[in-house]
Automatic annotation (TrEMBL):
It comes from Variovorax robiniae. This is Putative 4-hydroxy-4-methyl-2-oxoglutarate aldolase. Its cofactor is a divalent metal cation. It comes from the Bacteria.
Length: 230
């Protein structure tokens, strides 16, 4: 009997094409989450180290044991320019998985940013670098480098499953992940939503503040009786 066991490190996987990444990067994560069916948004505990930080790219997935960053070092050596390191650190906040040295290497190599379900450190220096990092917080305690993990496998961060090569985008609102196979088809829908929202905001500024759908929704919810209005 033979087994088809996957290796801990999967070196090759398909990525979202660079021209699609460039188009999608112009959008807000909120817009993409809406047109993706209001799904794909990572739990808000994983947030930008500074609200101004933004990132967009293809997911390079890493799974580590809590507090150990051995596999992140391996991932930095393997990732391609434009990748985003997406690290399943099990939500641990007792020690930092990455700091200035590793972030400097990521920036130099063209890695588009870091999203980790874990903590970082050296936050002031990372802020000065203006390198986009999304984490569950900070901790001055350093990690160990002793325990194996996995690279290039699906991971779960903040309630969202991320496959290698998926599209990842983040801003001050948080992080959204869209499946590699779906992102291109969502771009026209996202463009329409941007246009529609701009028109609605313009109408509000012109005095049309009433939400035309509200009464019907309230009747459907049983809050208003048939024929009744606010």
């Amino acid at each position: 009997m033979t087994t088809n066991t996957l290796p801990d490190i999967i070196r090759d996987f398909q990525r979202v094409p660079a021209h699609i990444v460039a188009q999608a990067a112009e959008l807000q994560p909120a817009i993409l989450a809406d047109v993706a069916g209001r799904r794909g948004a990572v739990d808000g505990r994983i947030k930008a180290l500074r609200p101004r930080m933004k990132l967009a790219g293809t997911a390079f997935t890493v799974e580590v044991r809590p507090g150990d960053n051995l596999m992140i070092h391996a991932a930095i050596a393997m990732a391609k320019p434009g990748d985003v390191l997406v690290i399943d650190g099990k939500g641990d906040q007792t020690s930092a998985l990455m700091g200035t040295i590793m972030m400097t290497a990521c920036q130099k190599l063209g890695i588009a940013g870091v999203v980790m379900d874990g903590a970082c450190r050296d936050s002031l220096e990372i802020d000065e670098m203006d390198y986009p990092v999304f984490s569950v917080g900070t901790n001055p305690n350093g990690p160990t480098k002793n325990i194996g993990g996995r690279i290039g496998h699906p991971v779960s961060i903040g309630g969202v499953t991320v496959h290698p090569g998926d599209f990842v985008i983040g801003d001050g609102d948080g992080v959204v992940v869209v499946e590699r196979e779906k992102i291109e088809a969502l771009l026209p829908l996202a463009a329409k939503k941007v246009k529609d929202e701009a028109a609605r905001i313009a109408a509000i500024k012109g005095g049309e503040t009433a939400a035309k759908w509200l009464d019907a929704a309230l009747r459907s919810a049983g809050v208003l009786k048939e024929g009744e209005t606010l």
